[in-house]
């Protein structure tokens, strides 16, 4: 444990440099899409929904209903983005992971460093996005700020298995699949825009499998103050399981690729 | 003598398999402190597999391997802390600046930021890249990238430097500059292990080398010993005109076979391996043969290499 921490500290300068180099470029792409959704769905569609009454949404405005979901979805998208091309670059294209393990660092240390960086990227983006949501009046209560650690966990629950998947790829053609069959359906059917109980039964159950649903559910319950303790535990445990198992698989994948 | 020498890399019966394929099939060697040791061999001979095992980033499949007195299976990080590695492909971070590639790498070894900055500036000076310090790696030429990779491998002041084909793909100017740097490192007491398939590189840099072929060691010794043991002092090359066919070469070879210790028949020329090339030329003329061109030269490692590993292309 202490070795992993020390080896994490040794990577700090690297990831800081990467962040300094990339934060401006990612600023627009990180915010533009969720902002558009917030404006179009939350305010545009929202005014229409609100005029019909929002009892089915728990009595809050549509904007307040989707804001936690949009935040969680943003966390997921950033996390997956940072877990795909950068990982292939480190393993295959630029091979900087290979140079890292020629030092005292171990493959597991490299995985921890990459995941920590992703968590940082998710957290910083979500802090700003949460601020914007609050400005738009999208926060039902200050408790909604607690959504931040939850959506970082959502990001990590997605990032760890995607890093593991990416480490097994020979080229980037598999990455499009992650977005097409993972991120987009999760985004649309994880209860961000409507309660999944509206869906046909079998899709509803698919939604429950997605870590994003658990994240949306949890951050919305926090924001609206509708927490059920056992459901909170279930949501957290499910997200942690994705993160934990994903991390294990990622370490295995990195070890295979880097130490042959 | 053996008692005084310290073996930095101790290898006995070392093997490496990838699935059913045996890349290294049982090799023995020692690399002594302070020497420059070379691995020669055609593609697929097992050089890079051996280098990766010595670099403590590839588990062995059999045999004994001790690096700096330690077992890589148990003490990999401790070994790697004292190694410098210049891999075959540049693994630089192309989006970072030249200097950042060095300072950040030093941090992986646990050096302080101040130490990293100091080392980076020394090393940039050493590999003549000071003026490029702030440039992104993307903008460097191939030779500059190679020099930067070597500088990076030195950032931790390693006891043992592993160079996997350090000058492949470089122009002659860049190669000579690199050789100069490596020679200076050796003089400074750094132990070098080099793989190459450039014979001139091996002759320039290596005190001792092994020729690998098919996962085994085919020969071991200093460049001079290998030439003495596996070739002759000189080689006489005879070229006949275009009217002389390959089939005639065999007949011609028969007429001069007693003039050399060994004769090699190539499509375009005959090679006479002999200790006195000029005398062989005179004798060829005395026998009424008139080759279109004659060249007498000293034997090189290339002759040894081709004799040991054959002339067949390996892909």
From TrEMBL, chain A:
Cell compartments where the protein resides: Cell membrane; Membrane
Family annotation (PROSITE patterns): ABC_TM2
Membrane topology: Multi-pass membrane protein
Homology family: Belongs to the ABC-2 integral membrane protein family.
PANTHER family given in the database record: NODULATION PROTEIN J
GO BP of this protein: response to antibiotic
Bilayer-crossing regions: 26-45, 65-88, 109-137, 143-166, 178-196, 230-251
Domain of life: Bacteria
GO cellular component: ATP-binding cassette (ABC) transporter complex
Keywords noted in UniProt: Antibiotic resistance, Cell membrane, Membrane, Transmembrane, Transmembrane helix, Transport
GO MF, any single term: ABC-type transporter activity
Stated name of the protein: Transport permease protein
Pfam families found in the cross-reference section: ABC2_membrane
Main localization of the protein described in the UniProt heading: membrane
Domain ABC transmembrane type-2: 25-257
Provenance organism: Kribbella albertanoniae
From TrEMBL, chain B:
Chain coiled-coil ranges: none
Domain of life: Bacteria
Primary site of residence: membrane
Matches recorded under InterPro entries: AAA+_ATPase (IPR003593), ABC_transporter-like_ATP-bd (IPR003439), ABC_transporter-like_CS (IPR017871), P-loop_NTPase (IPR027417)
Gene3D superfamilies: P-loop containing nucleotide triphosphate hydrolases
Mode of membrane association: Peripheral membrane protein
Pfam family for this entry, one: ABC_tran
GO annotation, biological process: response to antibiotic
Localization (cell): Cell membrane
GO terms for cellular component: plasma membrane
Keywords: Antibiotic resistance, ATP-binding, Cell membrane, Membrane, Nucleotide-binding, Translocase, Transport
Domain ABC transporter: 9-239
The protein, known as: ATP-binding cassette domain-containing protein
């Amino acid at each position: 444990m202490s070795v992993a921490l020390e080896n994490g500290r040794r990577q700090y300068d690297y990831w800081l440099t990467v962040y300094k180099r990339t934060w401006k470029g990612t600023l627009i792409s990180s915010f533009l899409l969720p902002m558009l959704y917030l404006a179009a769905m939350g305010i545009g569609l929202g005014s229409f929904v609100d005029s019909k009454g929002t009892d089915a949404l728990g009595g809050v405005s549509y904007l307040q209903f989707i804001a936690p979901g949009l935040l969680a979805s943003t966390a997921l998208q950033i996390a997956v983005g940072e877990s795909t091309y950068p990982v292939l670059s480190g393993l295959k294209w630029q091979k900087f992971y290979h140079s890292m393990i020629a030092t005292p660092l171990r493959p597991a240390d490299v995985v921890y460093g990459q995941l920590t960086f992703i968590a940082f990227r998710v957290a910083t983006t979500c802090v700003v996005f949460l601020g914007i949501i609050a400005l738009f009046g999208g926060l039902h209560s200050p408790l909604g700020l607690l959504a931040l650690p939850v959506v970082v966990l959502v990001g990590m629950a997605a990032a760890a298995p995607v890093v593991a998947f990416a480490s097994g790829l020979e080229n980037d053609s598999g990455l499009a699949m992650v977005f097409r069959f993972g991120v987009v359906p999760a985004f649309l059917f994880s209860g961000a825009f409507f309660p999944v109980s509206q869906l046909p039964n079998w899709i509803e159950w698919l939604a429950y499998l997605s870590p994003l649903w658990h994240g949306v559910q949890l951050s919305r319950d926090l924001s609206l103050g509708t927490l059920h303790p056992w459901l909170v535990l279930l949501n957290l445990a499910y997200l942690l399981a994705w993160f934990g198992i994903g991390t294990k698989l990622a370490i295995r994948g990195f070890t295979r690729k880097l130490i042959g | 003598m053996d008692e005084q020498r310290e073996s930095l890399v101790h290898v006995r019966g070392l093997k490496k398999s990838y699935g059913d394929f045996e890349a290294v099939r049982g090799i023995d060697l020692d690399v002594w402190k302070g020497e420059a040791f070379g691995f020669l061999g055609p593609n697929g001979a097992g050089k890079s597999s051996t280098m990766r095992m010595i670099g403590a980033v590839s588990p062995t499949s059999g045999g004994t391997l001790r690096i700096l007195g330690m077992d890589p299976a148990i003490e990999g990080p401790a070994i790697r802390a004292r190694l410098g590695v210049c891999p075959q492909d540049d693994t630089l971070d192309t989006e970072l600046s030249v200097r950042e590639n060095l300072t950040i790498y030093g941090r992986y070894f646990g050096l302080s930021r101040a130490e990293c900055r100091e080392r980076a500036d020394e090393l940039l000076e050493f590999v003549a890249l000071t003026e490029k310090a702030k440039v992104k790696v993307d903008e460097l030429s191939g030779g500059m990238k190679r020099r930067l990779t070597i500088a990076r491998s030195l950032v931790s002041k390693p006891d043992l430097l592993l160079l996997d084909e350090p000058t492949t793909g470089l122009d002659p100017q860049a190669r000579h500059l690199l050789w100069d740097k490596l020679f200076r490192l050796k003089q400074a007491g750094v132990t070098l292990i080099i793989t190459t398939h450039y014979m001139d590189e091996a002759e320039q840099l290596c005190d001792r080398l092994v020729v690998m072929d098919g996962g085994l060691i085919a020969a071991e010794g200093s460049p001079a010993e290998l030439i003495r043991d596996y070739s002759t002092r000189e080689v006489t090359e005879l070229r006949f005109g275009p009217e002389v066919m390959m089939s005639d070469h065999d007949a011609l070879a028969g007429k001069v076979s007693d003039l050399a210790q060994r004769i090699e028949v190539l499509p375009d020329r005959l090679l006479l391996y002999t200790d006195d090339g000029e005398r062989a030329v005179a004798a060829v003329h005395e026998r009424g043969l008139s080759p279109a061109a004659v060249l007498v030269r000293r034997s090189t490692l290339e002759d040894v290499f081709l004799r040991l590993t054959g002339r067949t292309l390996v892909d």
